[in-house]
Amino acid sequence: xxxxxxxxxxxxxxxxxxxxxxxxxxxxxxxxxxxxxxxxxxxxxxxxxxxxxxxxxxxxxxxxxxxxxxxxxxxxxxxxxxxxxxxxxxxxxxxxxxxxxxxxxxxxxxxxxxx
Length: 115
Description:
Elements: E1 2-6, E2 9-12, E3 17-24, E4 32-38, E5 45-50, E6 57-59, E7 67-72, E8 77-82, E9 91-99, E10 102-105, E11 109-114
Parallel strand pairs: 2-11
Antiparallel strand pairs: 1-3, 3-8, 4-5, 4-9, 5-6, 7-8, 9-10, 9-11
């Protein structure tokens, strides 16, 4: 099982980034997917959720209206479009795949938003 995030980087406040997370070694389309983030000195927090077939999504209040989660099951990939980025969005972003008691994590990608 592998989840590989990409798309992180350094961006100015107000800018945009799109994160990708490619899964392999499991039945991607059966898993709900989540994006989490962890800033230095803070606990990991869930940012966004998408159901296995993509019909249901939800977001943390702090990113609602700015971030959009989507998935392409044909490509075994989940995305996080991040717009209107703020310095407080700076964190390592992780994707997570969940199915019942199974849970898989990626290695994370750094997002840094400068003011």
